[in-house]
Amino acid sequence: MGTMYLLLLFTGVLAGGQAQRHFVTAFLENYDRTSATTFQLYIITYNNAASVTVTVAQPSFNQTVVIERDKDALVTLSYDYMIYEKDISSKAVIVTSDANISVYAFYTKNNTADAMVCLPQEELGTEYYIFTPGTGGINQFAVANGINDAVSVNITVSGTIIFNGTYYGSKDKISISLAYQQVIQFQSTSDLTGTRISSSAPVAVFMGNKCFAGPGTTCDVLVEQLYPVQNWGRYFAVFPLLNHTSDIIDIIAAYSDTRIFIEGSKGNTTQYNLAQGSHVKLTLQDRILVNSSKPIMISYLIQQSTTGPVPDYDPFLTTVPPIDFKRNYYKFVTYPDYYNYLLIVSQSSADTDFFLDHHPLNLNNAFVSELNGIKAIEVSLGKIGGQHEIYNEASAFVIYVYGIYHGVSYGYSVGQEKSYPDPPLPNATEEPDNPVVLDCLPHGAVYQIPLRLVLDAQLSVQDIHLEDPLCQAVEQGNFAIINVPFNSCGSRVLDEDGKIFYVNTVYGTIPDTSIHRIEVPVQCEMAGNETLGINFHPKVTDVVSQGHYNISLKLYEGGDYIKPIALYPFEIDLPGNIYVEFQVDSDDKDLQIITENCKSSPTLEDTAQSYNLIEHGCFLDSTLHGYLITDNRQQRFSFHVFKFDDFQEVYLACNVVICHKSSVPNRCTQGCLNRRHKRNIHSPESKLGTARLSQGPVVFKKEHQHQQQHDNNTLPLSSFVGALCVFGLMSVAVLILQKRYYQKQGYSLLPNTSNIH
Ligand SMILES: *[C@@H]1O[C@H](CO)[C@@H](O)[C@H](O)[C@H]1NC(C)=O
Ligand SMILES: *[C@@H]1O[C@H](CO)[C@@H](O)[C@H](O)[C@H]1NC(C)=O
Ligand SMILES: *[C@@H]1O[C@H](CO)[C@@H](O)[C@H](O)[C@H]1NC(C)=O
Ligand SMILES: *[C@@H]1O[C@H](CO)[C@@H](O)[C@H](O)[C@H]1NC(C)=O
Ligand SMILES: *[C@@H]1O[C@H](CO)[C@@H](O)[C@H](O)[C@H]1NC(C)=O
Ligand SMILES: *[C@@H]1O[C@H](CO)[C@@H](O)[C@H](O)[C@H]1NC(C)=O
Ligand SMILES: *[C@@H]1O[C@H](CO)[C@@H](O)[C@H](O)[C@H]1NC(C)=O
Ligand SMILES: *[C@@H]1O[C@H](CO)[C@@H](O)[C@H](O)[C@H]1NC(C)=O
Ligand SMILES: *[C@@H]1O[C@H](CO)[C@@H](O)[C@H](O)[C@H]1NC(C)=O
Ligand SMILES: *[C@@H]1O[C@H](CO)[C@@H](O)[C@H](O)[C@H]1NC(C)=O
Questions:
Q1: Would the CB of 164 count as within 6 Å of ligand 3?
Q2: 399, exposed or middle or buried, with CB in 10 Å at 0-12, 13-18, 19+?
Q3: What are the residue ranges in the chain where pLDDT is below 70?
Q4: Which side of the chain, N or C, has fewer Cβ within a 10 Å radius?
């Protein structure tokens, strides 16, 4: 059965209406442009149901969600909509709704995230100042036009930007024009704070960092939508989030000669004078109050910290709303799986009767701090995602919402906007539910009307009928149910634009009169385009891809093979024995391993001085001693250490071959192959893979000049061996990685020699 559409026309009820809310947002670049990264729009409704459409011009996206009143819905945009263009793109995301909604955007990926409040059209402006979180990573901002046909935008750069092949330094101007649904993103490794944007009509502006590197963080996405200068304020209270003592705040001035006073918790005051577009960056050690002679913008960058329920969360970025408290009711969204928090900032004298999700907020479970008449309440919301509501009947406040988890975090604030949905009326008498339901089924429709409505009309169930009065309703539970067949009872067919509608009318008629107390036109639109699924068995074509075994090379201190050597370079006395073990790391007990070649050399470079210990599986060195071992996945042997003249170190590089018992006889069972049998070894069936391993250096004890280097090079053996495995068919990327690893360790890679595959 296909999708059926319900089209119910109830006399006297008006549907639709003009768009009440319009948002312009954008998916700024995240360092990971893969399918793991998404842009999620959480849309929340208020007192009315809403039909919300989200569109992007190119690549095209058009999704409409219908959300009941006081509910939410999620619209997810894939990474296809992420802006990576170095030029204008048509990726502005437009959200329109026919009723009041709020929209929150989440940048999600398992190991990096942030969130922002999406500002409706009324909040957008024509003058903005960019804030970016200092140097480190890639700072970025974006300007989107989602309201007008065309907007001209002037960008006065602070920092440096390369755009369209041209370098722009501080005070240079970039002028562009954005058509409807166009957006432009700028990136720079320099701090762009103070960059000014002015436009001929309202635009939306976003800022952040694509890959922020801060204390304890190497690459974290930061994002926030900016408020235009018209929304800036002069009174602020900044309370550290999560008991932090070294977060960063940044204060920007839009006008010359802006005097800023910062009052700390110890009663001391610091004053700054800022010129137009200049800013001051401060470490937030404790609560502060900020006032200024002219409007300013404050941004808050939370730094990674070990306080809180997880020790390793990422930074996030939020704006600080001014404390001209206007709203006493907010709906907000938290993210599942994170430890979520709500911070409420209000006047100290404010009413403390907050309602969180319809329950009185218990302040005993909250952390309350205060500074000169302003109060902050930090509430832990736990790992609960989704829509929440905070309400105080008597007092207004602003909120911050944030969440942290291993390697991730998000944060945003609300309260700076000038227009916002009305709070619910505290004693609003809820309209009685009238669940009038029409079900369109394959051969007809079923319509049910609450018995209460029938009784209110002073009618009985038998008085409810279709256009054919003989087709009457029956009583079922609390409803009068009436079947509407498509081919009788007065049903008609309307065929409009290829769409098929069945139409009838439900009447409630006073007996023996022509007076209808109830009249409900009912229509079923039957889907003319069905998507059908069928079952079939796909024929599978074998796909073979190259994998690698992990092979370890371990050195031991003794022939008991109990204590592996963990520190390299390993020091050894001459004379002495060294004990070697190769192992293929697999659950398959039928694997076999053989050492094909083993060569020692005084350096990691291939030198003429290298000395062959094993060749074609044959022990060449007379001190070599093999150990019988039942597990074919391992091979053990020992030899007398030796030293190259004038060198303090010895490296060992070996090739091992892995075979499977199912291919016996194979290279591994062949053992030593003298020159006569040599050509057999290349039979492809006889071996699964070859690996080249090297280990070292082994340093001769009496010398101590290497001590310093030893300490630097100390690392767990397993990772050392893992890094040294050089497989014949390994990809270039892996080789490069190993090279890096080596450079980090102060070694260079053994060059591949031609006889090793
Ligand atoms: C989105 O789809 C709806 C329904 O198909 C259509 O009416 C509307 O014009 C589309 N909007 C855009 C911007 O493409
Ligand atoms: C992200 O994390 C979820 C839950 O921890 C996991 O199911 C999912 O596979 C992860 N996705 C990626 C791309 O790592
Ligand atoms: C970039 O430069 C090219 C060639 O100079 C020009 O055609 C194009 O309009 C420029 N793009 C923008 C966004 O200015
Ligand atoms: C952009 O700059 C040009 C040249 O200075 C100026 O004429 C224009 O009015 C500016 N436009 C906006 C929107 O600021
Ligand atoms: C911050 O410190 C207070 C007082 O020590 C404590 O009650 C609260 O739980 C702390 N908050 C966090 C997020 O650790
Ligand atoms: C107040 O004084 C302390 C200690 O001298 C200082 O660390 C802090 O930054 C000052 N705060 C303000 C707002 O001036
Ligand atoms: C701002 O703060 C300073 C220092 O506390 C104070 O002297 C000044 O009166 C304040 N200005 C306003 C407008 O509140
Ligand atoms: C809808 O939102 C507007 C602001 O965008 C507000 O003025 C209006 O009162 C709201 N209406 C309701 C019913 O909440
Ligand atoms: C039928 O539906 C499919 C999928 O929704 C759509 O691609 C196709 O264009 C539709 N065909 C017609 C004739 O409407
Ligand atoms: C192979 O070694 C690598 C690097 O040490 C490790 O990450 C991986 O888990 C190992 N694979 C197996 C199957 O043991």
A1: yes
A2: buried
A3: 1-19, 110, 424-436, 498, 527-548, 568, 573-575, 604-607, 643, 645, 675-757
A4: N
Secondary structure of the chain: what % helix, strand, coil (to 5)? 10, 45, 45
Q: Specify the pLDDT at position 191.
A: 93
Atom of ligand 6 lying closest to residue 266 CA: 1
Nearest residue by C-alpha to atom 2 in ligand 5: 243
**In 3-state terms, what secondary structure has residue 677?**
helix
Mutate to test the pocket of ligand 7, among 234, 261, 271 (most ligand atoms within 8 A of CB): 261
Q: How far apart are CA 479 and CA 732, in angstroms?
A: 72
> Which residues lie across from 520 on neighbouring strands?
506
Confidence (pLDDT) at 498:
67
Q: Which ligand is nearest to the CA of 61?
A: 1
Residues 6 or more apart whose Cβ sits within 8 Å of residue 275: 253, 256, 257, 258
Distance 206 CA to ligand 4 centre (A): 21
Predicted pLDDT at 677: 52
Q: Which ligand is nearest to the CA of 270?
A: 6
**CA 405 to chain centroid:** 12
Q: Is 8 in the pocket of ligand 3 (CB under 6 A)?
A: no
713 three-state secondary structure? helix
SS3 743: helix
Structure tokens at 450: 């609450």
Digit-coded pLDDT (tens) for 87-132? 999 999 999 999 999 999 998 876 778 999 999 999 999 999 999 9
pLDDT of residue 98: 92
Task: Give the type of residue at 550.
Answer: N
Q: What residues flank ligand 8, with Cβ below 6 Å?
A: 20, 46-47, 100, 419, 421-422
Provide the β-strand partners of residue 399: 344, 414
How does DSSP assign 245-305, residue by residue? SSEEEEEEESSSSEEEEEEETTS-EEEEEE-TT-EEEEEE-S-EEEEEEEEEEEEEEEPP-
Instruction: Confirm or reject: Cβ of 55 under 6 Å from ligand 1.
Output: yes
Ligand 5 atom with minimal separation from the 243 CA: 1
Q: What is the 3-state secondary structure (H, E, C) of 415-435?
A: CCCCCCCCCCCCCCCCCCCCC
pLDDT for the residue numbered 717: 30
User: For atom 7 of ligand 1, which residue has the closest CA?
Assistant: 62
For ligand 2, atom 7, name the residue with the nearest CA: 110
229 CB-near residues (< 8 Å, 6+ apart): 125, 127, 128, 129, 254, 295, 297
Structural contact between residues 508 and 517, judged by C-beta atoms closer than 8 angstroms: yes
529 lines ligand 9 (CB under 6 A): yes
pLDDT score recorded for residue 404: 92
Indicate if ligand 6 lies below 6 Å from the C-beta of 290. Answer: no
Q: Is 585 in the pocket of ligand 10 (CB under 6 A)?
A: yes
Beta bridge partners of 639: 578
CB-based contact 358:451 (threshold 8 Å): no
Looking at residue 696, what is its pLDDT? 57
CA dist 153 and 159 (Å) reads 18
Tell me the best of 236, 291, 294 to mutate to test the pocket of ligand 7, counting ligand atoms within 8 Å of each CB and taking the most.
291
